[in-house]
Amino acid sequence: DAELQRAACNSLGQIITDNAVNRVKAGNAGAVEAAVVAMRRHAGSVGLQHAAIGMLGGMTAGAGNAQITAKAGNAGAVEAIVAAMCTYRVDAELQRAACMTLARLNGDNADNNNRAKAGNAGAVEAVVAAMRTHREDAELQRAAC
Question: Which domain of life is it from (predicted)?
Fold first, then answer.
């Protein structure tokens, strides 16, 4: 059920905010993989997409997140985020969060394979489309750059 998955992602997002220990626990419990599965299964639910992208952004925030970032990449988070961006192009809030999360997933990390995944998934085109569609949104422009 999309609404249940949305609520779960929102709850996890609150639990992991500014709490590295809880991010690790959530990562070990399979939160990243569950969010990606929910995004794929409920692609038509914009609310779920918002919640999952937000939670994935929270999971990959902060220093020392290489393991979670790799886990997200292996679970298909990059591809799921790009799919949401392509589906909900006019939703500035979703585009903004997606750009921020993609930046975190592709951060400076020698072992980061997510950059190749992003290129193959069409992330470059999706980010440029977001920048063009939402030219007046300064926060989105910052996130995209």
Answer: Eukaryota
